[in-house]
Design brief:
Two copies of one chain form a homodimer. Chain A is of the alpha+beta class. Helices cover 42% and strands 26% of the residues of chain A. The first copy, chain A, is globular. The structure holds a DNA duplex.
Chain lengths: 235, 235
DNA sequence: TTTAAAAACTGACAATAATCACTTTTCATA
DNA sequence: TATGAAAAGTGATTATTGTCAGTTTTTAAA
């Protein structure tokens, strides 16, 4: 569904994004070129293997990015929220999308065509710097995730993933912090890199140990401190 | 050991690097600011957690980059050879080094101080593009590695690592391709993300199955086709 | 409200990989 | 070339995780 545009100049999510410090003029250019589209859970923004024609900027909602392994399994690479850009690394390396992005919480997403984006990148050195800086930070994060994936047990990794989720999507309540995003057991499994059944079993162990609680579809993190310990060391 | 400088202008490795298309003037600036240092196997270029003061460019030899997991284990992140840059993502994200880089094959490495590097980056938009493009490609590679790490068995991953090594360091011989780099079983284990004993056992299986052969310290890849199959599917 | 499908969950079992406690081989150097 | 240390290799055992074959619960739509 194509929405009436909301100008980038007045967009609140923008403040959180790489566009935070663009000039009025640059924002107008992008606003003029972009589309804002409302998406329902389950809709897909782009598919692995197709060619990027621009970049996506999340106004609201949550988008998951998934990569297919050559043996058919799937890896959840990233969860994008308000202010996050999607698909720009493929655009910038002039490659096809390395992964598929799908809405998992109803979202409004702006699409900015390649030319408008590249134009700002070309003309605004500060913006280019910010982009570079952000990508370099991503590399650091990926190195850490790779290290964890290879050197830690599933139990440690799940604990770590829960802590990351609570950092990004956590909302403090009376008892513990609620992860304000619904992920199926299968999706958590694909994020951690394990079988769905293993996630189910570990979550109920964590629950038994009072590290987490379940509130309907949501996970409440009760004991971050102990969870951090579980994430770091074989107990 | 500090060496007499070899000017970037006449450096053969440069053609393989991100510096390939710099102007004469830019190269002179960098040449003037840099140091070339010869390193023996085992010496370390920089340590995880320290602040980058510039970037490293490999003239010859091989450098491994290793990251410590929070549980004390180690992950081999990258093997850099002639023409490869090291430490620039940490520099560009204004962060401490996320990993440690150590020589594993006697090397000559140039150190380019931050200011000289940033100066070229600031003034030469094309160079900045090339850097961005390269980092974005790295992101794609890391996504693939993460997916493999999480979704594949050790056997598949070892097969995949051997294929990657032969692509990068392979030299064709009469029978198969020789991986022209000496890695200990422990280092291969840290690259694949498993125990040393597991690597030893799998390598001798691969040898038994005539996928590889051992020639002293070197590994010969005999059957890339079957190895690719092993890398992709549970047999 | 019924009903079919999807998701969550459980238990048994098998497979994979880690760990430990060695032996053997290789290598550097005294 | 002797020798001690490091690396490679082996075997037995255990722990972890995956797979399969279900049941139960939840959800969405008729």
């Amino acid at each position: 569904m194509r929405d009436p545009k909301e100008a980038c100049e007045i967009c609140l999510s923008r403040k959180l994004s790489l566009f935070a410090n663009l000039t009025e003029e640059e924002l107008k250019k992008i606003s003029a070129a972009k589309n804002m589209i409302s998406h329902k859970k389950g809709q897909t923004l782009f598919y692995e293997g197709t060619k990027p024609l621009g970049i996506f900027c999340v106004r609201s909602g949550v988008v998951k990015t998934v990569k297919a392994a050559s043996n058919g399994k799937e890896q959840l690479i990233h969860l994008a929220k308000e202010g996050d850009f999607l698909g720009y690394t493929s655009l910038l390396s002039d490659d096809v999308y390395s992964s598929t992005s799908t809405i998992i919480k109803d979202a409004r997403v702006c699409f900015i065509p390649k030319e408008a984006f590249m134009d700002v990148l070309r003309k605004d050195v500060n913006f280019h710097y910010k982009v570079t800086e952000s990508i370099c930070r991503d590399i650091g994060n990926m190195e850490e995730r790779l290290t964890d994936a290879n050197q830690k047990s599933i139990r440690e990794r799940l604990a770590y993933v829960l802590l990351k989720l609570v950092n990004t999507f956590g909302v403090k309540g009376e008892k513990g912090e609620k992860i304000e995003i619904v992920l199926s057991r299968e999706e958590i499994a694909s994020l951690v890199g394990t079988a769905t059944e293993t996630i189910i079993r570990l979550l109920s162990e964590f629950k038994k140990d009072k590290l987490i609680a379940l509130q309907g579809k949501y996970i409440l993190v009760l004991d971050k401190k102990t969870l951090s310990k579980v994430a770091d060391f074989y107990q």
